[in-house]
Amino acid sequence: MSTLPDFRLETYFSRWEFTARHHLTASDAQTMTVSELLALADDEDRQAWETLSLGYTETFGDPALRQAIAGTYEHVDADDVICFAGAEEGLYLAMHALLGPGDHAVVLTPNYQAAETVPLSLCEVTGVALDAEHDWAFDVDAVLAALRPNTRVVSVNFPNNPTGAVSSAEDFARLARVCDERGIRLFSDEVYRGLERDPARTLPQAADLSERALSLNVTSKALGLPGLRIGWIACRDRILRGRLERAKHYTTICNSAPSEVLARIALKAREQIVARNRALIAANLPLFDAFFAEFADLFSWCPPDGGCVAFPRYHGADGVETFCAELVEQAGVLLLPAGIFRSELTPTPADRFRIGVGRRDPEPALEAFSAWLRARR
């Protein structure tokens, strides 16, 4: 296995995620308890839960779960779905199945670190940055200009983590079409799909646009159920999907049986859960707007177009790394500074931090944050 660098986000979280008093940088929407989720189950799934045998499950994933996942797409069947232990395993194994020495990949930045470092461990990679000066605009022409004869993968993430940016449907469809024409795999991280501020901006899923494209998703983000550790890739190329199954034989082999049943319940109730989370974000955003308006001299704030994270700018002379470190140490408020998201491929703004807007009751965290800032003035 190729040597990978430390995962900066997880290293930072291992220190602070469960010790900071206020987790204000969460990337997932509000979660629920097992009893709350089971209350959404139909009779068949409740019976399946109560009589569940704790043996091995199918490597591809529980057939009923895959059917529920397929129901969230327009042109995907259950046989086009393979499940993983979260989105990270799917990303990791897909890149190993698709890339090797002599290949080239194009990756959108900023991003979740593995989207960049895993391809970099396998082949040459070109980064294409969202435009920080224009609300993180996506330049599809820049992506197309980066393509080479040996490009095998184009990796994108919308709604984007950490910026909350969303591509236009026209640009996304154009990207999928050009990738198909050139025999390139479009790898689309869609884990925040459904949490767009304007539902009209919800993008089509890559696996619906192209038989060759891969759509990555998970129960963790838009559904707010990261503890289930259930992710999946939808791809209509059955040969590639078979390669992913054989790769999974070397990692998790199969998923957790209880998690698969609970994920099935969540997927069947997806519209209800996502509507709840979207409403929660909509209710939270005025609180964040008011906070950043009070401290307009310190921050430039723009709410996310999609997802439940944003990437505001910090204007303080001490710099964002020092600012975030002192904030968590002195006030117990956890944010993620720009260095966590720095790219080896493109210049990354060094004055940003990630903040989460998808958890219930952010007022105590914002009050602690405000009090700390006022005391510094």
Count of helices?
14
Low-confidence stretches: none
Strand count, sense and barrel status of the largest sheet are: 7 strands, mixed
How many domains? The number is 2
Q: What is the CATH superfamily label of the largest domain?
A: Type I PLP-dependent aspartate aminotransferase-like (Major domain)
CATH architecture field of the largest domain: 3-Layer(aba) Sandwich
Shape: globular
Oligomer: single chain
> Mean pLDDT across all residues, rounded?
97
- Structural class, by secondary structure, is alpha/beta
What value does the Rg take, in angstroms? Answer: 20 Å
> What's the total count of β strands?
14
Give the DSSP E fraction (strand runs of 2 or more residues). Answer: 5-15%
GO molecular function: pyridoxal phosphate binding; transaminase activity
Domain Aminotransferase class I/classII large: 54-357
Keywords: Aminotransferase, Transferase
Protein name: Aminotransferase
Q: Explain this structure to me?
A:
By secondary structure, the protein is α/β, with parallel strands linked by helices. It has two domains: 8-33 and 272-376, Alpha-Beta Complex (Aspartate Aminotransferase, domain 1); 34-269, Type I PLP-dependent aspartate aminotransferase-like (Major domain) (Aspartate Aminotransferase, domain 2, 3-Layer(aba) Sandwich), CATH 3.40.640. 39% of the residues lie in helices and 14% in strands. The model has no long low-confidence stretch (mean pLDDT 97).
